[in-house]
Amino acid sequence: VVSTQSTGSSGINAEYGEVINSFFTFDHTMSKFLALILFLAVLVLAVGSSNCSLKKKKLNKKIKQYKKRCLSKGFQSSVGCTSASVNRKLGKKVLKKCQTIEEVLKKCDFSCPVDGGWSDHGGWTDCSADCGGGNQTRSRTCSNPAPAFGGVDCDGEAEESQECNKSQCPINGGWTGWGAWSQCSAQCEEGNQTRKRSCSDPAPAFGGADCVGNGEESQKCNTQPCPVNGGWTSFVAWSQCSTQCGGGSQTRKKILQQPCSS
Question: Is the pLDDT of residue 132 over 60?
Fold first, then answer.
């Protein structure tokens, strides 16, 4: 049976030794070679899954070291910390040292909070109306940067709106109904009369189109013939006198003419 014990330098827990002992107690036919392989696998697991190895005091010291030697010199943090803006690049040794420090801090679950920042607003949407007042919106996202590691969300609204196309809509003209016919221009034998309407129902406004058509129309009226009254002709010549002497009489006539029928 292979036995194990806990040592501070290796970080191996006594609990892993109990796992090995239990394994070989269960199956005594297992070869020592396979037992050794299993033991080594448990050892690797124990070392790979170790937690933060720093006490609180040493952790704080390591954080200060990280800020002073790395962040202040422009090292690009992968744990959300803000780096100083510098014009020169870090040397390879400094870069490697900072990466090592950062890996240690990661095992201790260290990270800097990143507060969210708004992106620029996108374009305005199409207006909800072509005229007469509509509405349009535009939006932004809390992604510049996105909040991380416990940082606060963006302050404000993700969407804003405004009025648009507030000008009056064009109003096309519309005809009223026709008015009454005017008096006929003649009593008989065809006269003329008119009637009117106006482009005011509604009147065109704000660039709207005028009414299509005529505002006045006419028609014939009193097309019947005019009446013709009868009339006398002139007197015809006198008739011959009834006697040569001693006083006689003579007559003359006129004719009543009838109107011609049409």
Answer: yes
